[in-house]
Amino acid sequence: MGLVCSHGKEHGTHAPGALHHLKATPQTVHWGYFSPDLAPALTVKSGDLIMAEAITHHAGDAPELMFDEGVERIFREIDPTTRAPGVHIMTGPIYVEGAEPGDMLEVRYLQMTPRNNYGSNLAANWGHLYQEFGEKERVTIYELDPVANTAHALYAYDFPGKYLVPGTITNCPVCDRQPALPGITIPARPHLGTAGVAPAVNEPVSTIPPGLHGGNIDNWRIGAGATMYYKCQVAGGLFSIGDPHVSQGDGEISGTAIESSLNCLFQIVLRKDFDFPSPLLETPQNWIVHGFGEDLDAAMKNASMDMLHLLHEHQGLSKDDAYSLMSVATDFGVTQVVDGTLGVHARIERRLFPQKGTVTDIS
Amino acid sequence: MGLVCSHGKEHGTHAPGALHHLKATPQTVHWGYFSPDLAPALTVKSGDLIMAEAITHHAGDAPELMFDEGVERIFREIDPTTRAPGVHIMTGPIYVEGAEPGDMLEVRYLQMTPRNNYGSNLAANWGHLYQEFGEKERVTIYELDPVANTAHALYAYDFPGKYLVPGTITNCPVCDRQPALPGITIPARPHLGTAGVAPAVNEPVSTIPPGLHGGNIDNWRIGAGATMYYKCQVAGGLFSIGDPHVSQGDGEISGTAIESSLNCLFQIVLRKDFDFPSPLLETPQNWIVHGFGEDLDAAMKNASMDMLHLLHEHQGLSKDDAYSLMSVATDFGVTQVVDGTLGVHARIERRLFPQKGTVTDIS
Fold it and tell me: Which domain of life is it from (chains A, B) (predicted)?
């Protein structure tokens, strides 16, 4: 096999097809769930580009900044009691012509731009230090500088009561606003917290726990320039995006990121030539696998086994060699620690495999 | 307070004092334990430079490559039954004049150079996937390119029996050597796996579990250019180094890194002006705290609490602000997953605090 294998050449030069626009409206979003029974909001061919709106379910934390007419319609028109069993506003689903169960969707994220320049971080009742903070919930509103690609806090307030209804609209009085994080500028990392295909389950599936379909992976590296591979579970794949973030640390320990609506340009390529058991991420620097579990130790084991799978089955290393390489050159990070959705990811550098094109170029 | 606070100015310009050489010999190493009862191998003043030899306890995995006269003396002369209760060869201890319990030792690691150009990775019986690999142990020998700062595998062999005695000398016959990781070049990350002060305990303390004294933290960022802060528990601190690695991934999942002897140049500065509850790391990019625990979830909680402590007590943020910043801009990584020594670290970027000098410049 030469420097560029046939698989890499084939899909590496996949010319963009049509460009579709998918606005987020009460008719084109589903709030809190994935479902195989949803009618497609859009149908595309392999290779097509999609410019889609992803709306944060935390826009109500600062409606004066994060609402516009389109966002407000979604919050006003979708009955709060139907926003279940999860919490995220998902735009889609997108039906990919020809996609069958077992096929992979290669989703190349090309651009993520803020819809407005504001975001909210909630120290939530599902956060890692909720007990340590005396069961207090608190909102910190951030302003983005899209040119510098940074963010800084504008103000903060204690949330009244308990944050239980997705999309709660909180009109914090000006008098209750407190200054926050004076002098601190943080790097922005725009990305999608939740995206994936419809699970093959005959009921709505919560958007909260990540899984083989993708979902709420919350890896901040799923941004522009990155490519995700999701395994289709139903015909057409039924891919949706949501939970947009402008920044998050590995761990997302307060329970949320800087939650902020994003406009996302991406290309979907249908892949029938390879297979991977869990959501796979390729950035310009790394190949990344994701493990999930009831606790971090279980998530760690799952991430380990999937990195072993990647290096052995896909990159052609012996299992022994792969294990050694995983110990000396693979970095494991904590992706998120929310109860029920604990995640660990494993990163290996692409430069270790200079003969390869993409992660899917089988040895 | 100005751009550079008094603490920063004071110790930032701390001129190097005397340069000491500390060779590793059977008389200047302690194998498997820290102890407050050891006679100092060297006594220094605050600010002095030390050029010390750190010897890997895995040199016996490839004695034809990793032994020299000095290493062999240590392996031959130190009774294997005394290498307990841990496994690492520690050079020291170094007594720092004037250091009292509660003082901090600021150890500035300046240079780490290979003693020879070979290292060993063991897929060990204490590794994360030992059961999944059918309880097999395997050695992979790596060769370093110190100019390119890379490593590649030379050969591998299955370890005969179970690796139980620290410093086992294995003369793998040439005929049993198998090629390993063909075509793979990995980046080197020379660092110390284990270093720390003597715990104030009236018995030898294993080098294996990390703790407040430092010890086996196994963070690959503890390399040249990084500074560690260790809290003295006994007079003089009694600082020792060992467990040298030329590369490791976060997680060190096979149970070992590329274990390879290093010559280490460092400066020790005695600090009586600040305090931190656990081993604190400062790299050119990051401030890093370490949490340890019986499982990853406990280690995660401990790392979270210590990052909260750092941002609140040392950097002057309110606890609320600190928690938000930890969710949106702090990355949590898995440091190691060996039973009994699970570790999680938390990294925050120094550029978020442009007015600060070092991590110890109190607001």
Answer: Bacteria
